[in-house]
Amino acid sequence: MTRQDTFKHKGLRERLVAQMRKKGITDEAVLRAMGEVQRHWFLDSALDALAYEDRALKIGCEQTISHPSTVAMQSQLLNVTPGMKVLEIGTGSGYQTAILCRMGAKVFTVERQKGLFDKTRPLLAALGYRARCFLGDGYQGLQEVNYGPYDRIIVTCGAREIPDALMSQLKTGGIMVIPLGEEEQEMLRITKNGDRREDWQIEKFGAYSFVPMLDGRNMG
Ligand code: SAH
């Protein structure tokens, strides 16, 4: 890795954090993490100049890194405190994973595309983020290795329904943030006050556009 964290990168990150404040992000832990995590490492070097714009960008395998404002909003809705066990579905570039690690969470993250998994796992390790990365279908959560239940679950791809397996791996009292819908998604925050659906408190936070959550693994 030859790229550095230059004064320019630092300045652009400060500007990005200020932009996030203007957009209504108030959780200081989220803002601090965004000021620290070097988003340019999570992108192809050709995209270096765009790394601190509030844009989604291509990361290969027909996937995208989420807008910084989307990462900020999901992280804020998740209401994470240090030490919490967080399950993330859709590792992608690893940027959201790194933000959660910086916030002190113990992160377990699942990606279905082998190409991204193979790239992102070593990157996170090289940058010192101690997330546990898994290749698998996030609709199933992390069933084969039982690290759950989780305090928080974050889904970073558009799901057509609320995955039962994920809800069952969430602690009682836990929170899941998930964009729900096929073409366009509505951001939901679900607080699991009990096992029955009637006990779930569902709050809505507006429209977003995510790549779809797909079934199965893609080993290609
Ligand atoms: N948080 C990531 C978002 C990447 S886009 C980032 O900011 O970089 C969403 C990711 O979800 C893609 O990498 C896609 O391959 C992955 N994905 C889609 N369906 C999935 C599933 N069922 N299980 C796990 N990952 C999935």
Question: Over all CA atoms, what is the radius of gyration?
Answer: 16 Å
Small molecules in complex: S-adenosyl-L-homocysteine
Number of strands: 9
Cα distance, first to last residue? 25 Å
Portion in helices? 25-40%
Task: Label the structural class.
Answer: alpha/beta
Key descriptive features of the protein:
220 residues, alpha/beta, two-stranded antiparallel sheet, 6 helices, 28% helix, globular, binds S-adenosyl-L-homocysteine
Structure explained in plain terms:
The structure is a single chain. The protein has 220 residues and is α/β, with parallel strands linked by helices. It has six helices and nine strands, in the order ααββαβαβαββαβββ. Helix 1 (7-22) runs antiparallel to helix 2 (28-36). The protein is globular and about 50 Å long. The structure holds S-adenosyl-L-homocysteine. The site of S-adenosyl-L-homocysteine (SAH) has 24 residues, from strand 2, helix 4 and strand 4.
Short description:
With 220 residues, this protein is α/β, with parallel strands linked by helices. It has six helices and nine strands, in the order H-H-E-E-H-E-H-E-H-E-E-H-E-E-E.
Write the layout of secondary structure elements.
Elements lengths: L6 H16 L5 H9 L20 E4 L2 E3 L2 H11 L6 E5 L5 H8 L3 E6 L2 H13 L5 E4 L14 E6 L8 H5 L1 E11 L4 E8 L7 E9 L12
Parallel strand pairs: 3-4, 3-6, 4-5, 6-7
Antiparallel strand pairs: 1-2, 7-8, 8-9
The structure holds S-adenosyl-L-homocysteine.
The site of S-adenosyl-L-homocysteine has 24 residues, from strand 2, helix 4 and strand 4.
